[in-house]
Design a protein that fits this description.
By secondary structure, the protein is an alpha/beta fold. The protein has one domain (2-35, 92-348): Rossmann fold. It has helices at residues 2-10, 14-43, 52-58, 62-74, 110-120, 126-142, 147-161, 166-181, 187-198, 211-220, 250-263, 280-283, 296-305, 316-322, 325-348, and strands at 96-100, 202-210, 225-229, 231-234, 237-242, 271-274, 288-292, 308-310. The strands form two sheets. Strands 3-2-1-6-7-8 form a six-stranded parallel sheet, sandwiched between helices. The protein has a two-stranded antiparallel ribbon with strand order 4-5. β4 and β5 form a beta hairpin. α6 packs antiparallel against α15 and α8 (166-181) packs across α10 (211-220). The longest helix is centred in the first third of the chain and has 30 residues, at 14-43. InterPro entries: HAD-like_SerB, HAD-like_sf, HAD_hydro_SerB1, HAD_sf. Residues 52-87 have a biased composition (Basic and acidic residues).
Length: 349
Amino acid sequence: MAALRRLHLARRSPDERTALAGEAAADAAEAGLLAVTAGRTDGAGSAAGTEKSAEKAEKTDKAEKAEKSEKAEKAGRGRKAPAEDHTPTPGDPRAAAFFDCDNTILRGAAMFYLGVGLYRRRFFTRRDVARFVWQQTWFRLHGSEDPAHIADAQDTALGLVAGKRTAELEQICEEIFEEVIADKVWPGTRALVQMHLDAGQRVWLVTAAPQEIARIIARRLGMTGALATVAETSNGEYTGRLVGGLLHGPAKAAAVQALARREQLDLSRCAAFSDSANDIPMLSLVGHPYVVNPDASLRRHARTHGWRVRDFRTGRKAARVGLPAAAGLGVAAGATAAALAAHRRRRTA
C-alpha cells in the first residue's frame, strides 16, 4: 500500500505536490476557522457570522480574549517573552505569526506523541512501537528531522487510518492531547505565542503533523488555527491518501503564502518561528524570522543572516557531545521494553 501511495504521488512533479499541499492546508485552515467562528456565533444567538468580515471582527471581542487567556494559563503560560524580541505592532490587521510545532512549541515530535496515544489504543504493533521510539530518540539527539523517518511515519499512519471515520480520530486526538501532549509545551515559546496574541495578531501553527492533532494543539494554546498535513476523506472516512503531500519544508512556505493571500497579510510585517533548517523557506518569507531551539544548520544560517535565536533548552549541547550513538540505541531499547512491559501488565491485570 505504501508503494502504491508513493506511485500515486509520483505522477505529480515535486513543485505540484508542494503547491497542492500548501493550498490544501490553507483551505483546511480557513474552513476550520470559519467553522469555529460560526459555532460561537450560533451559540450566542447572533447573526453576525454570515459575512467574513463580521466573523473576523468577532474574533477580537472581549469574550474571545478572555477565552484565550484562560487557555493560555492551562497550557503553561507564565514566562514573559525576552525583552529584545521584536515587539508586534498592536492591532495590525495585516500582520500575523507562524509557529512550527516539533521542537519549537513542543519538546519532541507531535507525530510521536500521537503514535504513543494510538499504541495505547492498540492501533500499533510492538514492532511499530520500537521503530517510533528509535525515530523519536534520533530526533531528540540530533535536533532535526530525518526525511526517511517522516515518510515512514506518514505511510504507517495513512495505512492505519484508511477506512476509519474522521470523527473517531478527532476524538482520539483530543484525548491524546490531554494524556501526552499538554505537558510538552516549551514555556518560552508559549510566551512568544502569547505576545503576538496580546498584540491582537492572528497566530498560526504550521506543522507536518495531521490537521486533526494540529488543530487541537492550536486551539488549546489559544492560537488562531493550524496549517497542517491534510488527509483525503470521502463520506466522512479516510481514504489512506494525502491531499498533495506532507506539509514539510517548501510545502510549509507554500501554505503560508496561500493563507497570506486569502487573509490579505503582508508577510514583511509577519513573524515566523522554527527549529529546523527544513523551514528556511518559510522563515525567509517573513520580515521577522526567529529560530527557536535550532538545529546546527539553522543556527549557522541564522548567524549568517542576522536572524534572532532563542534556545529554551538546558544542557543539551553537553548531552550531545557526551552521548555516543550506542547510548541512543540503549535509550530506544529501554523505552521500548518499558512500553511493552506496561502493555503486558495491562493485559494480565
